[in-house]
Amino acid sequence: MFDLTGQVALVTGGAKGIGKGIAKVLASAGATVVIADIDETAGKASAEELGAHYFYLDVARQESCKQAVAAVMRDLERLDILCSNTGIFPQCDLASMTEQHWDEMHGINLKGTFFMVQAALEAMRTQGYGRIVITSSITGPLTGFPGWSHYAASKAGQLGFMRSAALECARDGITINAVMPGNILTEGLLAQGEDYLAQMKAAIPTHTLGTPDDIGHAVCFLASREARYITGQTLVVDGGQVLPESPEALI
């Protein structure tokens, strides 16, 4: 376990799912964790459970992102780690997709990432240190799935943003990297139903689905001091899902 004692970590979308898994692992590594989420009830409950702090956050609003970072700096006096994790993934086929569907997806997943990273960088530059980890996905950068073209575009966009942003702060002691989860057992995935889960398990070499903690451990590594020489990179956490070239490889 990497030691994050004395460091302050802000996890967006940390009320549940992958975000809660990230918050849990970072807290267990010694970080003071702030859960920032639009869901106040779940956010406060998760914060209490994990011994973390909670701040309200709507990543689609730039002022809300600035206020969340300002609150962290006011109450905890530093910000060492940003886990930009908030995301949505409503399914919609191209024929039915509206401009509103597209804009909502990108407003939260992609624009929200920009807003949070920009706000965090301002705080991190003053202390000459920072670790930013973005939660992207294998869907978009590496794979596709019917009904999620808008989601895939937002997740691929996050990585393009990350690479250029990493160059802008490379000399400031700040790194920006991303994790790319495969199918992780969250509330959202469970809502897809047993048939979907069985289909996903069959497509993964390990024949298992990941857990939020699996993503948390990957984030913890990228958020550590030891990862200082890694920036602008991605880490796939998917049980080998993107590896097979044919169904025979999964037998």
UniProtKB/TrEMBL annotation:
Pfam families registered for this protein in UniProt: adh_short_C2
Listed Gene3D superfamilies: NAD(P)-binding Rossmann-like Domain (3.40.50.720)
EC number: 1.1.1.100
EC class: oxidoreductase
Keywords: Oxidoreductase
Entry annotated with the keyword Oxidoreductase: yes
Superkingdom per UniProt: Bacteria
SUPFAM superfamilies for this protein: NAD(P)-binding Rossmann-fold domains (SSF51735)
InterPro entries: NAD(P)-bd_dom_sf, SDR, SDR_fam
GO molecular function (one): 3-oxoacyl-[acyl-carrier-protein] reductase (NADPH) activity
Protein family according to the UniProt entry: Belongs to the short-chain dehydrogenases/reductases (SDR) family.
Name of the protein this chain belongs to: 3-oxoacyl-ACP reductase FabG
Source organism per UniProt: Oceanimonas pelagia
Gene: fabG
